[in-house]
Amino acid sequence: MRVAVVGAGAMGSLFAARLALAGEDVTLVSRPSPHLEIIQQAGLTLVENDGSRQAVPIPATRDPIGVSGADLVILLIKAWATAEAISAIRPYLSAATVILTLQNGLGNQQAIRDALGDGAPQPILVGVTSQAALRETPGVVHHAGTGPTRIGGGREPSETMRRAVARLLTAAGIPTDDVTNIEWWIWQKVAINVAINGLTALMGEANGALLRDDELRLAARTLANEVAAVAASQGFDLGDIVLAVEEVVAATAANRSSMLRDLETGSRTEVEAIHFAVLDVAAVAGVDVPATRVVSALLKHREGHAARQTTDHTRNRNVLV
Fold first, then answer.
1. Active site residues
2. Residue 8 contacts by C-beta under 8 Å, 6 or more apart in sequence?
3. DSSP state of 268
4. Closest Cα to residue 171, out of 49, 6, 1?
5. In the beta sheet, which residues pair with residue 101?
6. Of these four, 59, 176, 233, 244, which has the most CB atoms within 10 Å of its CB?
7. pLDDT digits (tens, 9 = 90+) for 56-108
8. Domains of the chain, with CATH numbers?
9. Range with the poorest average pLDDT among 185-199, 248-262, 300-314
10. Please, are residues 111 and 137 in contact by the beta-carbon 8 Å criterion?
């Protein structure tokens, strides 16, 4: 199976590296960046949790034609970049190309379908992953944590194709299950992201702070329960979501959430796809989510402030140069 991974962030780089190490025909496609240039010149340096490092040669390109001939395209980009990315690669997709989104948030399958256009034949798989990765410096990615990946997609991809994709990823060291209730898993991950990512981003702290401080722990529980109530309004009982959140916090205590890292670099966050998407569903369902609403507003404010700071810093640096 020929694979194209779209997005050379930490997760896209990790998936491409694992597939390359397994001997798969994989190409990494992404926007121009120093990270991509280093991969093109010297390969990706993959750092394992035990500290060992290896250089992984990965064919990489900034040209969307890199997806040509791919049987599977894995989208590992920010949710807000979906329309632009799909528009760029769409001319090079075959009718049989399967698109797998492992993006955060709600509504990714529909966003891809909208970007492909009416009548587009490409089947879409949806998934969530518990793998964790951190891009330390350009060209270097730390595989910070392992966990299951789950994929599904209703009737779009055939069962044979879904299972083939699950086997491909599992053989590459990314344990993956084909599940029939992928929407449940998406809602669970959204609840976890709302509870962890937003609070840690606002605090500027690693995930473990949510268990060390009783007030922060209560805040995370409140947010998780609000999202669980919204999920329940859509027919998904998330069970003991507080336990699920706290297990993730304990397992990733030293990690800094992607939303926090985005704020630190002045990058656009995924608050719309995660927090505001929950608010949209809650409004239609008539579910009150006051804590989520406050955190969403604060994140949006911080995002704009962080972006302005980064712009000012870059402007001052250019003047000095």
1. 189
2. 16, 28, 29, 30, 31, 33, 35, 36, 39, 60
3. -
4. 1
5. 75, 126
6. 176
7. 999 999 999 999 999 999 999 999 999 999 999 999 999 999 999 999 999 99
8. 2-179 (3.40.50.720), 183-312 (1.10.1040.10)
9. 300-314
10. no
